[in-house]
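Encode chain A's predicted structure.
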Amino acid sequence: MIVLGIDIGGSGIKGAPVDLVGGRLATERLRLPTPDPATPKAIAETVAEIADHFAWQGPIGCGLPAAVRQGIVCTAANIDAEWIGTDVNALFQHVLGTTVTVLNDADAAGLAEMRFGAGQNQFGTLMVITIGTGLGTALFRDQVLFPNTELGHILLNGKKAEQFASGAVRKREHLSYETWAGRLDVYLKRLEELFWPDLFILGGGISKKHDKFFPYLSVKTRTVPAQLRNEAGIVGAALAAQNKL
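Encoded structure for chain A:
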């Protein structure tokens, strides 16, 4: 089955049809810059551009950097605050004219890793952490998702964790991988203290460079790089749409 998956990020919106038998992109993805300001209307129109690019008329899955409860957006991480309270399903249905399944973006990436990546056949308590503009988290117990954890917002040293240890912070503050890994290690240890997971899966684009920072991590929990890397959000969004069908 082929489903269009779209991953909305703080800097870019990426989408592609996904082959859900093999868990891979069926065509080259399209990336468009995230509108500024990233209002509901502006993002919905950008999502529509991606759907039009692929001449897509079927179901769509979409990962949004927010907690989404029963179709209502509850938070607005790295997108405009106007999103809070928005009925995202109704908005996208109106703009795109087709059924759109919307979920938290890190949850989407986590679903992909559980089905097709590093989380396959792994049980117990697992956490998928997406490292990018922010820090996204997806929490699983025996392959079952506990949605909307948003643990990138816990406080570390008086600020949100993603303001201390995200990939964007590493770039903005020109941190070496060793220095940044020290910050990430602090964050992982806090999650370890709270949840005692059996496995951390670290994803996002930076996961392809895991050899540059994994040696500096000292967290006790077994930690592995994500396998789907920066495509996980697209694949997981499409998977969520298929699951809803």
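Helices lie at 40-53, 88-96, 105-116, 162-165, 167-172, 177-195, 232-244.
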